[in-house]
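[Meeting: bench + compute handoff]

Bench side (C.D.) handed over the final construct sequence. Compute side (W.E.) agreed to return the predicted structure before the next meeting so the bench team could plan truncations. Sequence as handed over:
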Amino acid sequence: MAERFERHRQPWNGEEAGKLRTLAAKGKGLKEIAKALGRTEESTRDFAKANSITIAKKR
């Protein structure tokens, strides 16, 4: 069953941006970061790219 995201199309706030930077700096993967933020992987990836935040690629 697909996950349901209640935050659909909601703007990012400063707290979420900070948490994204922290998790990315710790080397967490996209899937793990998105789940922690309650966002889709696509939304998380797009926001990170727009703000020059590098997310580690998990293999």
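W.E. noted at the follow-up: The helical segments are 14-25, 30-37, 41-50. C.D. will use this when planning the next construct.
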